[in-house]
Specification:
The chain is an alpha+beta fold. The chain contains 18 helices and 16 strands. Helix 3 runs parallel beside helix 4 and helix 10 runs antiparallel to helix 12. The chain is globular and about 75 Å long.
């Protein structure tokens, strides 16, 4: 069974159980500065988990494109991926533990044909915050899982929360027995020996963790599940790694054909994984840069290029590899076909920049070696080698090779220590970026959502009706709005935009919302960025008679509460696109 067949089986199964199939949210979150990428299927649904009504009802299912960066340096082994697809189904105040577990068991054993003896499950052991989950264990026994295959663990294993606060709850997890022997008599699903592989996680989301660490009950009980497609695909096909499945094999084979270093499977995996992840980010609008999401994309592309060099594969073959993925994954991700030329160009442009960086780094290395020669040194300092990497992107293994050719030694073990420290700093930064990111929109974010609509409407009045949103970003402190424009705004234009928005705020315009079919919303003149990403039933937010947009919300009820709108900065975002940064002042 191939990955796309598993995906379709999943969506069709839950559709037969009354779930509405919704489209995958983009990898780059809209109006959310708290996270770099969409990291879980529930992330775009937080407002609805907190009680907002979803236009498609209380039972939803989808496949979600996800990207996680904390393990980027581990890619190359037999299991780590940055990009992956998560299959999910949700109950928004509808069914709970019994129906959720029953459906999961039926899908695994009947639809996918997994023998019950291959399954083990875990449940929450309970603590002072939440009681032991005997109810889930009882349901597992009822559907057919033997009692000896049901385990209980604490919060570290069986409690799910994204970030440090927000919606959360105990979970029950399903594990696939690979058939490997137990590593000890104590071996169980919490062991990392590889005998048990987690395949599905059902979170019973009935709590909200406050910033002070306390918990409160949510207004509704939800179910949030996640089944990793690459992992279940690998297990069902009896493969050792995701790279042995049809998702990667064509590119892995092409790399094997192109390289003289047939034994270097680690570099081939890194190239295959990072290229796929980069293509997915670019297809959703991502571009390389030196900060945040753009930096992650740049890092993925440059690490891929370093390993192409290591494999001694001509960098012009990148175009060929992109086409192989287009043919391999085009049915699953049509944007890889539609945006093929764009994806190629972005990667090739970044490749060209990095080649210059490598050339510059090599010149700097020659200076370092000359200084070492003058000082009669035979060992290059690790800090110098690492600085060449951090400043110029010059790979330590290349430094080592060139240095040894000229009689100098490099201690890569010490370099590894510096890399680990660097990774920890990066992970800490990612954690801070993630902190609180899925806890829902606060008061100021809600105000800025509405102000974004007013700015979009004002730009149409002042600059012309063809003006539209090309991207936005919201934090509790400010809003950022991108729009196509062929000139720098004049002071007069900026003042007119501010005055018009503040006039609408002072008028106290009501903000209303209506659910309707997507095509009907478009017919009424409702605007939407990336209309294809919205489900068949959408919510249209109307602000007086000045704005009508399809949006996921949330919004204020009246513009009067927004305060005073002030443009802080207007600048170029990219070619033909301008950016406004603005604040609301009470």
């Amino acid at each position: 069974m191939k990955a796309i067949e598993i995906r379709n089986k999943y969506l069709n199964y839950f559709k037969s159980k009354g779930h509405v199939v919704i489209p995958s949210a983009p990898l780059i979150p809209e109006n959310d500065a708290s996270v770099l990428f969409t990291t879980a299927g529930m992330q775009p649904l937080v407002p609805y988990l907190l009680g907002q009504k979803h236009p498609n009802g209380t039972r939803l299912t989808d496949y979600q494109k996800c990207l996680r960066t904390v393990d980027i340096d581990e890619v190359g082994d037999n299991r780590h991926l940055t990009y992956f697809e998560m299959l999910g189904n949700w109950s928004l105040g509808d069914y709970f533990k019994e129906e959720s577990i029953s459906m999961s068991y039926e899908f695994l054993t009947k639809e996918l044909g997994i023998p019950v003896e291959k399954l083990s499950v875990t449940c929450f052991a309970g603590d002072s915050d939440c009681a032991r989950d005997e109810e889930s264990a009882k349901v597992w026994k009822k559907v057919g899982v033997p009692e000896e295959k049901i385990y209980f663990f604490g919060k570290d294993d069986n409690w799910w929360i994204a970030g440090e606060n927000g919606p959360c709850g105990p979970d029950t997890e399903m594990f696939y027995d690979t058939g490997k022997p137990k590593c000890s008599s104590e071996c169980n699903p919490s062991c990392g020996c590889g005998k048990y592989v987690e395949i599905w996680n059902n979170v019973f989301m009935e709590f909200y963790k406050n910033e002070d660490g306390t918990y409160k009950k949510l207004s509704q009980k939800n179910v949030d599940t996640g089944l990793g497609l690459e992992r279940i695909n690998m297990l069902l096909q009896g493969k050792e790694t995701p790279y042995d499945t049809e998702l990667f094999v064509p590119v892995m084979d092409k790399l094997l054909e192109l390289t003289p270093y047939k034994e270097n499977i680690q570099s081939r995996r890194i190239v295959a994984e990072h290229l796929r992840a980069s293509m997915m980010i670019i297809s959703d609008g991502g571009r390389p840069s030196n900060i945040d999401r753009g930096y992650i994309l740049r890092r993925l592309i440059r690490r891929m290029i370093r390993h192409l060099n290591k494999l001694e594969i001509n960098l012009n073959e990148i175009s060929t590899l992109v086409d192989v993925y287009k043919d391999t994954l085009g049915e699953m991700y049509p944007d890889l076909v539609l945006k093929n030329k764009e994806i190629k160009q972005v990667i090739i442009d970044e490749k060209d920049k990095f080649v210059k960086t490598l050339e510059h780094g090599q010149r700097e290395l020659e200076k370092v070696l000359n200084r070492a020669k003058q000082e009669n040194k035979t060992i290059l300092e690790t800090s110098t080698v690492f600085n060449l990497y951090e400043t110029y992107g010059f790979p330590p293994e290349v430094t080592k090779e060139i240095a040894e050719e000229q009689g100098y030694s490099v201690d890569l073990k010490e370099i590894d220590k510096l890399f680990k420290e660097h990774q920890e700093k990066s992970k800490t930064g990612s954690d801070k970026k993630f902190k609180g990111g899925l806890s829902g929109s606060g008061e100021m974010e809600t105000k800025y959502h509405t102000a974004t609509h007013l700015l979009n409407a004002a730009l149409k009045v002042i600059l012309g009706p063809e003006t539209h949103q090309a991207g936005s970003n919201i934090t509790p402190e400010r809003m950022r709005f991108d729009f196509p424009c062929d000139h720098k705004l004049t002071d007069d234009e900026k003042k007119k935009i501010e005055d018009l928005i503040n006039e609408w705020i002072e008028e106290g315009l009501n903000v209303t919302n209506t659910e309707m079919k997507k095509e009907d919303a478009v017919a009424t003149g409702a605007e939407a960025m990336f209309i294809e990403r919205y489900p068949d039933i959408v919510t249209v937010y109307t602000i007086g008679d000045v704005s009508k947009e399809i949006c996921m919300g949330p919004h204020v009820e009246n513009t009067k509460v927004l305060g005073h709108f002030k443009i802080q900065k207007e600048e170029a975002s990219s070619a033909g696109v301008r950016r406004i940064k603005a604040v609301l002042i009470n």
